[in-house]
Amino acid sequence: MTASRKKKRWEDQSLLEINRREARTSFYGDSAPKISLNGEWKFQYLDAPELSPEGFEKADTDQEWDTIDVPSVWQMRGYDKMHYTDVLYLFPINPPFVPTENPTGIYKRKIRLDRDWLRQDTILKFHGVDSAFDVWVNGCHAGYSKVSRLPSEFDITELVREGENDITVRVYKWSDGTWLEDQDMWWLSGIYRDVELINEPKNAILDCRVDATLDSAYQNGILTADICLKNYQGTVNWRLEYRGHEISKSSVYSKNRTVHIEERVEEVKTWTAETPRLYMLTVSTEEHEIKVRVGFRKIEIKDGNIRVNNQVILLNGVNHHDFNPREGRCVTYEQIRSDIILMKRYNMNAVRCSHYPSNEYFYDLCDEFGLYVIDEADLECHGFEWVENYNWITDDPGWQMAYVDRNVRMVQRDRNHPSVIMWSMGNESGFGNNFKRAAQEIRALDSTRLIHYEGDSDAEVTDVYSTMYTRIQKLQKIGEMGTDNKKPHIMCEYGHAMGNGPGGLKAYQNLFRRYKRLQGGFLWEWYDHGVYTEKNGKKFYRYGGDFGDFPSNKNFCIDGLLMPDRSPSPALFEYSQVIAPVEVTRTEGSIREFQIKNYFDFLSLSVVEIDWFIEEEGTVIQSGIMDHLSAKPHNEEWVEIPFHSFRAKANTDYYLKVCVCLKEDVNYASKGHIISTVQFPLEITNTELSERETGEELTFKEDSHLLTIENRNISVKFHMVYGKMVSLSKDGKDYLTDGPQMTVYRATIDNDMYKKEDWMNRYFIQKSSEQTEYVNVKSKEDKALVTIGKYFGCLNQSWGYHCVYEYTVYPSGQVKVNLQAQRVQKGKLEPEFLPRIGIFMKGNKELQKTKWYGLGPGESYPDSKSASSMGIYDSTVDDLQTRYLYPQENGHRENVKWFGLYADQDGLLCKMEKPLGWNLSNYSDESLEIAQHPYEIEEAEDVLIHLDYLHSGLGSNSCGEEQQEKYKVKLQNFSMTFTLQVVDKDHFLTKARERYWN
Ligand code: IPT
């Protein structure tokens, strides 16, 4: 006999709420007094709601309860367990049902209300509770709500009394809502956003829906406001101000508890992300006053393009999750404010609320600082894709109202914000009727914005065609299709900032700038979701799987432009330079003439100045400012940089560096803030050859297979069996502890995750070795010449290299190394490309300081070097590293012409005949490969030195495009030459500049 399963309250997708008020706008200002209910609450954690103690909702429970701070997520307070998955639900797919073992938190607190307060109404507002909850006030059920990332308000006027009041909230981790909240993030629960009581006037202004658009000439503003009153019949006053100046005001008599305002604002100051001008609308009655900030702007699709105020815009955006390493999804106003300021400082103009509405203040800040927002409904059911029934609930009419509710409440809350330009109906949820209905409902509420949903892959109901992680070739095709009868395209996600990378961003930006149809994209993502941990005296960040959580997508959540400690990753600098709204290029054939292209959509170049510098390998020898730029948006102008001719020093490079800086203070940065930096080689060459210093005659000594060639300036040892230089020393001190040996391997980066298996378990690139073919030693004039033939290959591979290492030891103490590497293949199997080709050697561990001339100061890779410039930089070996949360290849610098490695005075100078890629590290590639967290990386006994003829790009293949072909290192012949010498560190530069004729 089977009885039908009884639906529990939290397993009923058609029950959207009990007693929850209609969603409404969040006012910027409100005269109604508020009491914050943040702070300590009594807390009881249970394994299932049914296990709640008898009478828990009653005012006086005398059980021993824990305390918990609100807002917080309970998993970060020691209850339940941490679990991270990208796609998977943690239980069987059986919607709307959820596990019987359903972690539950009962929260209780008391609040005293006085008689004065009780004269008005009492509204209890939760800004965010994950995932569903019941509320009791003084023992009576006050309501039920869900949708974790939206507010819920309950009118509890009838339930409160003078004196002490008891509030009980029972929060369910799993609910039918969970089926729609399967975003790629930690599973976290509790009252995680603010809670407050609002003392709402009996005659309150309940809602005020503002639409501030422009007339057909985009000159004058048209303001309409629809005000909804609770009980009030009477006069409603309103006033519109701009920066404290009254623009207009009037009074209207309410009709059926509504008021409609329409006002024309002549010569209005428009809102755009570049000019975030806000008016203030104040609406008042005798009892109540509210404020709404108003931005006049118009969003349209015209001629196939998204336009703001009739101008085609390009979105240079980022995906933002709410996250804090100690608090999970619980963030603060201060954190979000600094996020938004950082986005602005790094040239972003747009943000997508992936994948749920953020806190109310998020939008206020975007309005104020100027970011276009895609506001996204809290809706994702990605796990259904896994079972190959993606549209299971997306097409089920029984779920329709749940889809609609999530969208409609978002719109009702956020529709007054000028920053919001698109409503996104959710993420990764297939496509079906429930989205079609949601789109209709959104349009009925707000037709002034565009609708987005990537899952609507034919853009059947959306206004924009959105794709994610689209490969370059495909994107180009989308661009080439043009705008005729086509919807504009955006990439809601691209450029996966997981670990080291993404590289190749410039290729995307070039397409965005080239094709009219492509209107930019949103990088994935802002912040690493690492969890701060102190354990056994170690401080580190945990990711999925570190809590014994299985299955987990591990470090797939460590994919942000900001590390959890909020330090910018190299990718943030790269992205900022790639999207910089002012582009400086040199006119071909000229050294002084430059084109300045204005990629701002609204600002003219009069807001910036050009600070230029003539650099002599990093030292400024001339500089100037040009502040008369004027190009209009999307236009360009040409300037001549008026530097004087100068006498070039011998063997020295000169660069012209151009910084585009803000001319005035703005709210996110001060005057002088650098928007873009580019450097141009001046190609002024003054080659001077000198005679190489001499020195005592070199002596040769061979003992136990070790050949020592030395004089007072140098001592180098070669192993005659291993065919290798094994040390380089002077005055009894070793500088090199092992000489060059070829390598093709780098510690796998996240973006190589799909290459790793082949590279390491098929081609065994980490298992390389060299075999000695011959060692020839001879002296030629006063020099020693050691020529070593080697065969380089990897375990069980038929591809490899014939290498000829030629060492020339000079009496001056210099050792010139020339490597000629010829590829061989005697079979067929070989990798499509390699992480790198070059050599590595070892330095004395005591040498922990470095100076180099090359790209810097931060790390650079062939497809990610826009943010670096040529210069002479200083660092310690450790400071060259980027401490990626998940250890991997890092700290590489491209285009290095020389480097010095030293401890105190004397150091090893290595200068290249042609620039090479370079890494210096205290950690071997193998230890980086094995370690799961930075503290586990085993320190090497030497300083490890890589010199790369070529290093592969980073790409974005952990989710997205591979390295582009031109950034893949193919098996190819190569050669490299560099000279090693021990010199006083203060002479690195002079020595590095010497060129010899002999
Ligand atoms: C895409 C998701 O939308 C996002 O939440 C995140 O998981 C991102 O990928 C990767 O970090 S989904 C992916 C299947 C393209």
UniProtKB/TrEMBL annotation:
Pfam families per the UniProt record, alphabetical: Bgal_small_N, Glyco_hydro_2, Glyco_hydro_2_C, Glyco_hydro_2_N, LacZ_4
GO molecular-function terms, A-Z: beta-galactosidase activity; carbohydrate binding
GO BP, one annotated term: lactose catabolic process
Domain (Beta galactosidase small chain/): residue spans on this chain: 708-981
Keywords: Glycosidase, Hydrolase
Catalytic reaction annotation: Hydrolysis of terminal non-reducing beta-D-galactose residues in beta-D-galactosides
Protein family (similarity comment): Belongs to the glycosyl hydrolase 2 family.
Protein name (database record): Beta-galactosidase
GO CC, any one term: beta-galactosidase complex
UniProt cross-references to InterPro entries, sorted A to Z: B-gal_small/dom_5, Bact_Beta-galactosidase, Beta-gal/glucu_dom_sf, Gal_mutarotase_sf_dom, Galactose-bd-like_sf, GH, GH-type_carb-bd, Glyco_hydro_2
Source species: Blautia liquoris
The protein's Enzyme Commission number: 3.2.1.23
